[in-house]
Design the sequence.
């Protein structure tokens, strides 16, 4: 005689351990890898860093010394202004480090002069004024330079250019958070709130001295 439903044996219930293992497997299958940024994990592209004008003082010819220390030009050391570290990373819009790329910076000396014929050759020869770093696997860069100084008509800033395989990907400028000259600067005002937030950082005193950190995102 067939068994009534009440007489059928109850299905085996999974143990608590089995439930935990099954749940862990589901989480592992659906979670983003730990190395992904929040934007990447959600499939969102990072916002590219705003571009800005190159300006009139990009070097006509690169100086003999183009390393990452702008406060020493050959054997000469520059002692004016505030020494500072300029650090950060360069990635593409997916958050992938721009390994093998190059970041260049150039800026005026403490008295507001560039190493450029258009500035009358008045820049202090001890200030290198231009530097370049090849980005490693992590896309990081680090310069030793001068906290940017103002000159007539401009707020303090550092010019920046990013290249990959000889191709220019970005030209822009870095600004100093809280500098009173920002609000009067036509290029800084033109950026709008989002652009200003991307390119303006504080110079903060730390164990290794004054430092500012800028993250750069390029279309690559």
Sequence:
């Amino acid at each position: 005689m067939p068994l009534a439903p009440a007489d059928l044996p109850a299905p085996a219930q999974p143990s608590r351990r089995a439930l935990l293992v099954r749940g862990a497997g589901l989480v592992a299958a659906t979670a983003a890898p730990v190395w992904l940024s929040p934007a990447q994990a959600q499939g969102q592209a990072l916002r590219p860093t705003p571009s800005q004008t190159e300006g009139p003082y990009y070097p006509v010819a690169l100086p003999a010394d183009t390393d990452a220390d702008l406060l020493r030009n050959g054997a000469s050391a520059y002692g004016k202004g505030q020494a500072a570290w300029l650090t950060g990373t360069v990635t593409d819009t997916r958050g992938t480090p721009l390994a093998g790329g190059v970041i260049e910076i150039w800026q005026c000396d403490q008295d507001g002069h560039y190493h450029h014929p258009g500035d009358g050759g008045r820049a202090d020869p001890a200030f290198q004024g231009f530097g370049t770093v090849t980005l490693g696997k992590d896309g990081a860069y680090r310069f030793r330079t001068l906290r940017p100084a103002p000159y007539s008509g401009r707020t303090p800033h550092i010019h920046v250019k990013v290249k990959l395989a000889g191709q220019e990907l970005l030209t822009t400028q870095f600004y100093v958070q809280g500098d009173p000259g920002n609000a009067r600067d036509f290029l800084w005002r033109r950026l709008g709130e989002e652009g200003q937030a991307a390119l303006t950082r504080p110079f903060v005193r730390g164990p290794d001295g004054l430092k500012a950190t800028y993250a750069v995102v390029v279309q690559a």
In short: The two ends are 75 Å apart (CA to CA). Residues 16-30 form the longest helix (15 residues). The CA atoms of residues 113 and 123 lie 5 Å apart.
